[in-house]
Amino acid sequence: MGEALDWWRVEHLERGRLLRLRAEMRVPGSGWLELSITPTADGGAHYRQRALFEPHGLAGHLYWKALSPFHTVIFGGMARNITGAAE
């Protein structure tokens, strides 16, 4: 808890289950990245990744909309890399 990872800070950790990172970038809003694992009945796991953003004013909304296409590519690749490494 509290450790820095690039421009993220560990805000919440449940080992083997959930990691929530808070963005420390200078943006018009507050952002988090959540990575979670849920065990499945067949012995596998379900991986979930969520990017959350709380915009501050019009600038925050415009920022999030403008970066949305890039987030799709970046976070999609991140999910593939994490699940690929886990397999």
Offer a concise description of the structure.
The protein has 87 residues and is of the alpha+beta class.
Fold and architecture overview:
This protein has 87 residues and is α+β, with helices and mostly antiparallel strands. It is built from one helix and five strands; from the N terminus they run βββββα. The chain has a five-stranded antiparallel β-sheet. A hairpin with a 3-residue loop joins strand 2 and strand 3. The mean pLDDT is 93.
Write the layout of secondary structure elements.
Blueprint: E1 4-5, E2 8-14, E3 18-23, E4 29-39, E5 45-55, H1 57-86
Antiparallel strand pairs: 1-2, 2-3, 3-4, 4-5
Features:
alpha+beta; 5 strands; 87 residues; single chain; 5-stranded antiparallel beta sheet
Major sheet summary line: 5 strands, antiparallel
N-C termini distance: 27 Å
Helical content stands at: 25-40%
The averaged pLDDT comes out at 93
So what's the overall shape?
Answer: globular
| Spans where pLDDT lies below 50 across 5 or more residues | none
Tell me the strand percentage band: 35-45%
Number of extended strands: 5
Q: Briefly note the structural class of the backbone.
A: alpha+beta
Succession of helices and strands: EEEEEH
In DSSP terms, counting alpha (H) and pi (I) runs of 4 or more, how many helices? 1
| Strand arrangement across the biggest beta sheet | 1-2-3-4-5
The Rg value, from CA coordinates, equals 14 Å
